[in-house]
Write a structure and sequence with these properties.
alpha+beta, 3 helices
Amino acid sequence: MMEVPRDSRKLAIAKMQEIVDQAVDDSADAVTIEFAKEGGLEVLFVFGNTSVGDILVDRTLETAVITLIHERAGLEEDPCGVMHWESHGQNLEIIVEEYDSFGETAYTLTFPKGRRWDTEQAG
């Protein structure tokens, strides 16, 4: 992967925190992240067979966010890995799958089943 400047890396971490927190808050099953033809990254929050999203990462951060996901999930040799991330005091093990979408790298981040916030909302 590309070398990312320190400032861009900090902004990428903040953007990923925003994405993970939103997924947790909305109880998304997964998040897909892929390059948008308009530029930037399209982020889709997946709920069962439905997904909702928009271009949430602008062009200036797309490389930094993709590199961050790739490194944190350990995808150097395997297209599937685990990304450890904290959200709202919860340590998450997010399963990350890298795949090809129309010739571009894309990712699916799948959140663990039986998350504590799922049971808290149900009760």
